[in-house]
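Ticket #4471: structure output looks truncated?

Reporter: J.K.
Steps to reproduce: submitted the chain below (318 residues) through the standard prediction queue, then opened the result file.
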Amino acid sequence: MVDRATGKPSSGAPVPASRGGARAGVFGGRQRAAIYLSMLPGAAIYLVLGIVPSAATAVISLTNYTGVPGIPANFVGIQNYVQAFTIEWPGVANSIVDTLIFAAAVTVVQNVLALLVAEMLRRRVPGVAFFRALIFLPAVLGVTVIGLLWALIFNPSGGPAANFLRLFHVTTAFFGSNTWALPLVIFVQIWASLGFTVLVYLSGMNAVPVEMYEVAQLDGGGAWSVFRFVTFPMIAPSVTVDVLLAAVGSLNVYDLIYVLTDGLYHTNTLGMFMFNSAFQGSGNLGFGATLSMMLFAITLAVALPLQRYLRAREARIL
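Returned output as attached by the reporter:
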């Protein structure tokens, strides 16, 4: 150690140094090279499957590429973006509104429900393991299976939901209704993702020291007070993870909507609009890539401030 006043070594124990002059405990030399080498496979996969397709999408958005063999792709500059904000703007604007409504509803409702369910399931009571597995079950099902399952349940011709409503002389088209299609798709999305969200919250709750609950109960805190002042603040990192995953995931959902409604009846989110533009109808991959870049910008505009707020909340609480 060095004395700040004299600039000479102090009488304290010297700090061990490696051959490269680094302090002990800091990886250097062969250890650092081994770490970088172990990272190469993952970095290569991310480069090939993440960075390259993203860069290609940005380039394709500046062309009139159709994906049809024999038809050349010409560079058109920002023509696709101009088209999105002029000719196609009514459809794009409606898609953005549907996307934001869908994402906001899924993020809020899914996390509130997951917190309530996790709080109930964290208690060690007989049979709780069965209910934990039951809640998590939808997370292991494929999107197509989930979509077909709920399409059968809400089949207006003879599904269980339609038969139940007929008892009260009520009929509706469910996923074919302009009123109910979007709320039902939101419901199915929450049902499919709830298990994973609950699992993250349970992991955070299990890490809370038992002593904190005991002290809160000795102070006379009820169930709500314990959850509000002990559980919820202590699982701030889990809240950050779940809220960000729900927000980003719901902004980019299109596969479940494709199975349930094909983007009709006010469920044409920007992701669904992008898919239809690129792969159905005219098959305009250039314009679809443009919508994809717009969705990327919206996702960044939502995710970055949200992440900054949640991280600041963690630092303030913990």
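Triage note (M.O.): checked the attachment and the full token line is present. Residues 79-317 form a domain with the MetI-like fold fold (CATH 1.10.3720.10).
Status: closed, working as intended.
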